[in-house]
């Protein structure tokens, strides 16, 4: 592993402004934009919650999980299991149940995987996620390869998620709450210790920290929050399938976090929106006619996305937010260090 | 402090560590007393750093036992040694390079908090506002003379200052036993003098083991001197006795002094 870098923990003013404007735009959108795009934004917000949950492991603690989607998908399946065919279920008991199931799975799997380091951690998180994937993929009773339908969205009195506008604002509220909650965790004794583990776990242990307990706590918390996102995903799309727990889903989350900038949760949000936007952009690329053959650029969106991420990692290793800070430092000639040391 | 002013805080019996066929440390026994500095010297490869790692729990011994403040510690992980009151510094600077000096020491001081990580209180408090932790960190920074470097990134301070930071982080965990692995290595004359002063000030309240190559510092500081060669103790006693020991003169001090 390369030498640990300082994270961009204190957000530059431009990033805060960007986030503030983003929230205002999201709050205003349903009143001016189309329903189709409102649905797409709901999806992006859900993915942003998922990406933030991964950032707690990847950006803060330095644990790159290649199986984080397992906890995302699991909560969606829990919602599918408890929703009967003919009526909606209550939001206030199914949401904690789904989140709790994901957190419990993360606790059990985490107990085994957080003992490993570096490349081994990446491999075992992926192996466990694949086990969960095939458990659902191969079992007809669990929906099999086709997955399960969720005919009704959860409800709680006036908070009826069947109403798309209510669902939109509920998701936005969850997004904002998770962001501020995780920012709080970042500056808490737990968050400081997790950051220390990322930079120098050996020294943390020599100073008396039982790093296993800290990493397991982070893994469980991240699993639970991934479950929160997965519950919303299942409710919004109305069905769940094993792909939600699959390798691609986990890998996309990693790319979102890298794209936006790691370790501050704001980057994960920016990265999730940017990733989804680029995904649609690349999928809609035109089909070119070259002589007799057709070149369907949109079909190869993964190639363009891969090239884009490679270019970004080379040009802006700390993601989009890191780029913002870099520009700020160049324009304002701000010297890093002392003056940066306040929230 | 519960123990008597003059007492053994750490004791090792028959410590051996083998790497393959090689015994890097072979049957070493020693006691560390409060208010005494126990220096360990020896040529490169004598096993001094391995001995330090065995005493701090960084490495498990192949044979032998370590007792720390009356507790049998053999086989415990390093964090358990630290929690029982052992602090160590590293020969190769081992700090949090991207953090400020203050954040390095504050994190060390935070380790003495009693809450478990899974206690939700630990997730919502503002870590920078804990008075007890800040007091501990401030004391350690002032003792080690890094006060005016508080907000500097640890990776950008001088090598000597990084050595001071090592000590500050160790002190912030409020240890009773200190294992210092070459604290003077690479320091300038003035910096080394300040470090010697600091160690003398710490001496009354700590049991200290000092691994050091700087012989002037060793003879200025040590109450007890152990000489290691090839993993074994070849002489141990007062600095005067060891200085005149014939084995030592032949094996170690011979050429250099």
Structure description:
Chain A has about 350 residues and is mostly helical. Chain A has helices at about 15-30, 35-60, 70-80, 90-115, 120-135, 165-185, 190-205, 210-235, 245-260, 265-285, 300-315, 320-330; strands at about 150, 155, 160, 240, 285-290, 295. Chain A has a two-stranded antiparallel ribbon. Mean pLDDT of chain A is about 90; it is low at about 335-343. In chain B, the strands form two sheets. A six-stranded mixed beta sheet of chain B has the order 6-7-8-3-9-10, with helices on both faces. A four-stranded antiparallel beta sheet of chain B has the order 2-1-4-5. Chain B contains ten helices and ten strands. The longest helix of chain B has 14 residues, at about 130-145. Chain B is α/β, with parallel strands linked by helices and about 260 residues long. Classes of the chains: A mainly alpha (about 350), B alpha/beta (about 260). At the A-B interface, helix 7 and helix 8 of A face helix 2, helix 3 and helix 4 of B.
Give the secondary structure arrangement, pairings included.
The complex is a heterodimer of chains A (343) and B (257).
Chain A: H1 13-32, H2 35-61, H3 69-82, H4 91-113, H5 118-137, E1 148-149, E2 155-156, E3 159-160, H6 164-186, H7 189-206, H8 211-237, E4 239-240, H9 247-260, H10 266-283, E5 287-290, E6 293-296, H11 301-315, H12 319-332
Antiparallel strand pairs in A: 1-4, 2-3, 5-6
Chain B: E1 8-19, E2 22-33, E3 36-41, H1 48-56, E4 63-68, E5 71-72, H2 78-83, E6 86-89, H3 101-110, H4 121-124, H5 131-144, H6 159-172, E7 177-181, H7 189-202, E8 207-211, H8 215-221, E9 224-229, E10 232-237, H9 239-243, H10 246-256
Parallel strand pairs in B: 3-8, 3-9, 6-7, 7-8
Antiparallel strand pairs in B: 1-2, 1-4, 4-5, 9-10
Helix pairs in contact in B: 3-5, 3-6, 5-6
